[in-house]
Amino acid sequence: MAHKKGQGSVKNGRDSVSKRLGVKKFGSQVVVAGNIIIRQRGTKFLPGKNVGLGRDYTIWALVDGRVRFDRAGRRVNVDPAVEAAASAN
To answer: pTM for this one?
Structure first.
């Protein structure tokens, strides 16, 4: 009988790839329609005006504009960009 444990596989030799969750665009940052604002698991942040909610709870911008958080920073909105080019002509 062996007195020492054999050199088998280690118990803690694996790790998962990080999912890169979190806030991608912060308050008052300019976003283009389709930009991802938040990647999350569950509705930690709630969708507000002019944002969409994906089936994996990703929140993204539906219009061009600026990101705004309200409800103590837990609801995300996008305020539409004012057409500056139209008023300049």
So the answer is: 0.78
